[in-house]
Specification:
The structure is a homodimer.
Chain A: E1 2-6, H1 14-20, E2 28-32, H2 35-44, E3 50-53, E4 59-62, H3 65-89, E5 94-98, E6 105-109, E7 113-117, E8 120-124, E9 129-134, H4 136-144, E10 148-152, E11 155-156, E12 162-163, H5 167-178, E13 182-187, E14 205-206, H6 208-217, H7 221-231, E15 239-244, H8 250-255, E16 260-262
Parallel strand pairs in A: 1-2, 1-13, 2-10, 5-10, 13-15, 14-16
Antiparallel strand pairs in A: 3-4, 6-9, 7-8, 11-12, 15-16
């Protein structure tokens, strides 16, 4: 079982990715983003990102109901179904699903942020959280009957509300739940870069041990990314390919050593 | 098997419909619209409906690629997934699908419209068509495993392109393919009205024969609606309930004779 993670950047070449999937000799599931599309739609709808500053001075994006609506339109609607359409055109019998459908990805809603208003402390909770369980029976039911699941956010929380979640966390949970032995991440870079500003600095191979060392050296978004990668190695043996999702034949390129392989 | 058709008007009370579904003692499938939501989104995105006039003077709405994108966002994304969410909150294990997913609803694309441009005749084809076959195996697979399918447009054409289609045609095809013996249509009126302008003129019972007579007396959109109703009686025995989707307990009301029953 292979999990294909397709980034949501605007340079990602969806058509060449989908066409190249026939060269993958394995069952697979796709998890995709749509952040560029989401941002574009939010802009057109004059939706401004809500940023909250907590009482302790920590600021974070607040996913209100409208943010979820925009996610449903861009991720679950437009992007998910256009990928399903491309798959069907490539002879892949895809079914697009969110975590809400058949409670495919259940999560726990974040507790909230403590904010100060008129001198009083108040907890405010948005619609975001972390995935905790996968409906493996549903995925197997579909796969065993010849369908390819195409997954995206939102996921469903403990009270059956739609919540946003990080795709990295979803991929890690899927990997463990399905005992997938391969994860292919298609991104807007030629691979894992030693120097984020130098596209020629692709690291061809990284070991699980080296990953830990590197994680200790970085911070911010990069640290989160490293932690997400490390998570993929928490159960069973895994090969993680980090590859260019902007080029022709990106899957073939990935499997032939064209990007970064973490083992 | 019961097919629930939920209209896409803005007065439709989705929450009360979904909550009332537990009072339905039968397997069911939902087919829903989202036209009010689609029109609202199109307006926000400054999308103007394309209307083409054919060489023979017949004008029709032209579903271009952007119209399909807006359909994917409003029908397949926002409305479909919010209904799935409401279902999950009501204890119904729903899965939202379009006709693209697993080629659930395959259709034939319309041939196109002959238009005159610079004195020359040219065929232009939009992304619209008619549903022809249902993937009954997929629906049964889901229903037999305890899931409730929530269906919406688009459907998929013979070349695997997303196309728009009339929900009435989809419901009729589903009814025949699944041998459903009940269709409940939830609309923005208290039932089938003898006089379209008088909400007190609900016709309590109509026979299949009377339907034919009435069809001959009307025209325009109403004729299309009557034809669609007649289609529901082309195979097997059927009870069609046309009921108010704006009120509390709309399903209970429908089954207790609150609207129109066609038998």
């Amino acid at each position: 079982m292979t999990i294909i993670k397709i980034g949501g950047g605007e340079q990602i070449n969806l058509e060449s990715i989908i066409k190249d999937l026939i060269n993958l000799d394995d069952d697979f599931i796709i998890v995709h983003g749509a952040n560029a599309l989401r941002d574009e739609l939010a802009k057109k709808l004059d939706y401004e990102k809500q940023v909250l500053v907590s009482a302790s001075g920590y600021s974070s994006v607040f996913s209100d109901e409208e943010a979820l609506d925009i996610m449903l339109m861009s991720y679950s609607g437009l992007r998910n179904k256009r990928i399903v359409e491309m798959c069907q055109q490539a002879g892949i019998n895809a079914i697009g699903l969110t975590g809400l459908d058949g409670k495919l990805i259940e999560g726990k809603r974040n507790r909230g942020i403590r904010v100060k208003e008129d001198g009083k402390l108040r907890m405010v909770r948005d619609f975001s959280g972390k995935p905790k369980t996968i409906n493996v029976d549903l995925l197997k039911l579909l796969i065993d009957n010849g369908y390819v699941p195409i997954l995206t956010v939102p996921i469903i929380d403990e009270n059956n509300f739609a919540i946003s979640s990080e795709n990295d966390d979803i991929v890690a949970l899927l990997k463990h739940s399905l005992n997938a032995d391969r994860v292919i991440q298609l991104i807007e870079a030629p691979g894992f870069l030693d120097d984020a500003n130098n596209p020629d600095s692709v690291v061809k191979n990284i070991s699980r041990t080296e990953l830990g060392k590197r994680e200790a050296q970085v911070d911010g978004r990069m640290k989160r990314k490293m932690k997400a990668l490390i998570k993929l190695f928490e159960s069973g043996s895994t090969s993680v390919y980090i590859c260019d999702g902007r080029i022709e034949n990106p899957i073939t390129n990935a499997l032939n050593g064209g990007g970064t392989l973490i083992k």
